[in-house]
């Protein structure tokens, strides 16, 4: 999978050189290319924002640099990417959305700043490819970078070969629409706290049943919306 990221803070994504995704890049499983939106400006101050039409506080990102960035990535790719723009005004980014994006050969993450991106950028992107306006959660960040990083990690780890043991992906929270069961490891007693006996019993069927009950109870208590 190829991932292009466009931001006015490209250094924010340096962390993608390390950890699991960094190794995946080194193994050719992920081709992540980070770009500075200001590379597509042409004035002395490399301007990317301007005042909003209709008035209001803050600044809006100008459409021209984004249009040139989109065209530059398109020109350098075999087919149109899926354009992902994190925004508080988007549909929720969920594990289901991550799974869907993980099947795509090419993603373009557009990271906005200020009060957001001129709406015509989304319209233009939709005229040349599929656009996903996605929210990381119901809170407001200062820009799209943190959300894009989370989305890139959630999608990247689903690419075959990126995570060592693919079986672990199937048991995680939200994979089956439920929260995952509690986990324990050695020591068996720690600061006076023990481990549920069933996990030490070696009875795999009883362990699986206990884990299923724990998942259902935890989901009902913490995320009843997932059971609706
Ligand atoms: C667009 O409306 C906005 C209103 C006030 C501030 C901002 C700041 N901002 C700029 C670009 C941008 C991209 C994503 C997000 C974001 C996503 C989630 N889940 N929270 N926050 C926030 C962003 C935007």
TrEMBL record:
Q: Where does S-adenosyl-L-methionine bind?
A: 112, 136-141
Species name: Microbacterium awajiense
Instruction: State the protein's purpose.
Output: Specifically methylates guanosine-37 in various tRNAs.
Q: Where in the cell is it found?
A: Cytoplasm
Q: Which gene encodes it?
A: trmD
> What EC number(s) would the UniProt record show?
2.1.1.228
Highest classification ranks of the organism: Bacteria, Bacillati, Actinomycetota, Actinomycetes, Micrococcales
What's this protein's name? tRNA (guanine-N(1)-)-methyltransferase
Catalysed conversion reaction: guanosine(37) in tRNA + S-adenosyl-L-methionine = N(1)-methylguanosine(37) in tRNA + S-adenosyl-L-homocysteine + H(+)
> A Pfam family for this UniProt protein?
tRNA_m1G_MT
Q: Which domain of life is it from?
A: Bacteria
For this protein, the record's Gene3D superfamilies field holds:
3.40.1280.10, tRNA(m1g37)methyltransferase, domain 2
